[in-house]
Design goal:
By secondary structure, the chain is an all-alpha fold. The chain is 53% helix and 0% strand. It contains one helix and no strands. It has one helix at residues 13-53. The longest helix is centred in the middle third of the chain and has 41 residues, at 13-53.
Protein backbone atom coordinates (compact mmCIF):
# COMPACT_ATOMS: atom_id res chain seq x y z
CA UNK A 1 0.00 0.00 0.00
CA UNK A 2 0.98 3.63 -0.16
CA UNK A 3 2.46 5.57 2.69
CA UNK A 4 1.91 9.34 2.70
CA UNK A 5 0.86 9.23 -0.95
CA UNK A 6 4.13 7.56 -2.03
CA UNK A 7 3.61 4.12 -3.59
CA UNK A 8 5.69 1.30 -2.15
CA UNK A 9 6.15 -0.28 -5.56
CA UNK A 10 6.57 0.98 -9.09
CA UNK A 11 3.60 0.17 -11.35
CA UNK A 12 4.30 -2.05 -14.31
CA UNK A 13 4.23 -0.72 -17.84
CA UNK A 14 0.83 -2.33 -18.49
CA UNK A 15 -0.60 -0.86 -15.30
CA UNK A 16 0.67 2.58 -16.32
CA UNK A 17 -0.98 2.29 -19.74
CA UNK A 18 -4.20 1.05 -18.15
CA UNK A 19 -4.16 3.93 -15.71
CA UNK A 20 -3.65 6.47 -18.49
CA UNK A 21 -6.43 4.91 -20.58
CA UNK A 22 -8.75 4.81 -17.60
CA UNK A 23 -8.04 8.45 -16.76
CA UNK A 24 -8.64 9.54 -20.38
CA UNK A 25 -11.84 7.52 -20.72
CA UNK A 26 -13.23 8.87 -17.44
CA UNK A 27 -12.38 12.43 -18.49
CA UNK A 28 -14.22 11.94 -21.80
CA UNK A 29 -17.26 10.43 -20.07
CA UNK A 30 -17.35 13.24 -17.52
CA UNK A 31 -17.11 15.87 -20.28
CA UNK A 32 -19.97 14.25 -22.20
CA UNK A 33 -22.11 14.08 -19.06
CA UNK A 34 -21.41 17.73 -18.29
CA UNK A 35 -22.38 18.75 -21.84
CA UNK A 36 -25.55 16.63 -21.63
CA UNK A 37 -26.56 18.24 -18.31
CA UNK A 38 -25.91 21.70 -19.73
CA UNK A 39 -28.03 20.96 -22.82
CA UNK A 40 -30.82 19.50 -20.68
CA UNK A 41 -30.91 22.59 -18.49
CA UNK A 42 -30.98 24.86 -21.54
CA UNK A 43 -33.84 22.91 -23.14
CA UNK A 44 -35.75 22.74 -19.86
CA UNK A 45 -35.47 26.51 -19.49
CA UNK A 46 -36.72 27.06 -23.05
CA UNK A 47 -39.59 24.62 -22.53
CA UNK A 48 -40.67 26.39 -19.33
CA UNK A 49 -40.50 29.78 -21.04
CA UNK A 50 -42.57 28.49 -23.96
CA UNK A 51 -45.19 26.92 -21.68
CA UNK A 52 -45.51 30.08 -19.58
CA UNK A 53 -45.79 32.27 -22.70
CA UNK A 54 -48.58 30.18 -24.24
CA UNK A 55 -50.42 29.33 -21.04
CA UNK A 56 -53.90 30.18 -22.32
CA UNK A 57 -53.64 28.55 -25.72
CA UNK A 58 -53.09 24.98 -26.85
CA UNK A 59 -49.47 24.58 -27.83
CA UNK A 60 -49.79 21.07 -29.25
CA UNK A 61 -51.95 20.35 -32.25
CA UNK A 62 -53.52 16.90 -32.47
CA UNK A 63 -51.72 14.53 -34.76
CA UNK A 64 -53.57 13.31 -37.87
CA UNK A 65 -55.10 9.84 -37.76
CA UNK A 66 -52.93 7.12 -39.20
CA UNK A 67 -53.96 3.64 -40.25
CA UNK A 68 -53.03 0.98 -37.71
CA UNK A 69 -49.68 -0.69 -38.19
CA UNK A 70 -50.14 -4.27 -39.18
CA UNK A 71 -47.94 -4.95 -42.14
CA UNK A 72 -49.67 -6.92 -44.86
CA UNK A 73 -53.40 -6.72 -45.30
CA UNK A 74 -55.20 -10.01 -44.91
CA UNK A 75 -57.40 -11.43 -47.61
CA UNK A 76 -61.02 -11.71 -46.63
CA UNK A 77 -62.48 -15.19 -46.57
CA UNK A 78 -65.71 -15.68 -48.52
Amino acid sequence: MARNGIPLFKPTRAESKQSATDYTARAMIDAEAKARRKKTERLRKLRLEASSAGEGEATKTPSPKRPPAGGRSRAKKS
